[in-house]
Amino acid sequence: MEKIKKEEENGSGCGNGIGVGSGSGNKARRSKIDKQVHLINKEQTKFFVDASGDKQSLDLIFDLLARCNQKPKGREIIFKDICLLALPKITDKDIERLQESSLSEMEKVQRALEEFNLNNGTNLELGEFLVKKLNIN
User: Fold this and answer.
1) What letter does residue 43 receive in the DSSP assignment?
2) Are residues 43 and 13 in the same domain?
3) How many domains, the chain?
4) Most buried by CB count within 10 Å: which residue of 45, 60, 113, 136?
5) How far is Cα 49 from Cα 27, in angstroms, rounded to an integer?
6) From 18-22, 30-34, 96-100, the region with the lowest mean pLDDT
7) Under a CB-based contact definition with an 8 Å cutoff, are residues 132 and 125 in contact?
8) Long-range contacts (CB closer than 8 Å, 24 or more residues apart) made by 72-80
9) How far apart are CA 15 and CA 121, in angstroms?
10) Angle between helices 79-86 and 55-68 (to 10 degrees)
11) What is the mean pLDDT of residues 47-58?
């Protein structure tokens, strides 16, 4: 934890450092209309990828590296090379998929409620919406 805090302080760690270990103890809920703002540190020069919890992704990375380095000459191809080649190929559809995968289950339910209210001109609360969708009497 000490290492993470140190990296956040000097701006070399990954992430934006907002809300991480703030220790303020304020447990007040955010307003529904408040949007979470993600600040990007443009001075950040190092990014870290932790694939230790995802064996499938780790296997994919090692397989790509092994295939890229099956050559008689040239320098060793590293993960950075693969990332820099792949990043420009990310499309708007890929970005939408990434955004969708970042939503929690509750955020997906909340989004469905907002879409339902907008499409039907209603103003249902979450409980009323769930009763209606699940056909509970």
Assistant:
1) T
2) yes
3) 3
4) 113
5) 30
6) 18-22
7) no
8) 79/49
9) 39
10) 100
11) 93
- Radius of gyration from C-alpha coordinates of the chain: 22
Angle of helix 105-120 versus helix 126-134 axis, rounded to 10: 90
**Domain identity same for 44 and 68:** no
pLDDT confidence band for 25 (50 / 70 / 90):
low
- CA distances (Å), origin 135, targets 90, 127, 128, 130: 41, 12, 10, 8
Residues 51, 59: Cα–Cα separation, whole Å? 9
- How many other C-beta atoms lie within 10 A of the C-beta of residue 133? 13
Structural domain for 81, as ranges: 52-89
82 neighbors 89 (Cβ within 8 angstroms): no
When pLDDT is averaged across residues 45-74 and rounded to a whole number, the result is 94
The residues, any chain, with a CB within 8 Å of residue 124's CB and separated by 6 or more, are: 113, 116, 117, 132
**Is 115 exposed, middle or buried, given 0-12, 13-18 or 19+ CB atoms closer than 10 A?**
exposed
Q: How far apart are CA 109 and CA 99, in angstroms?
A: 15
Q: What is the model's pLDDT at position 18?
A: 45
Enter the tokens of residue 49: 């990828």
- 48, 63, 81: which is the final residue of a domain? 48
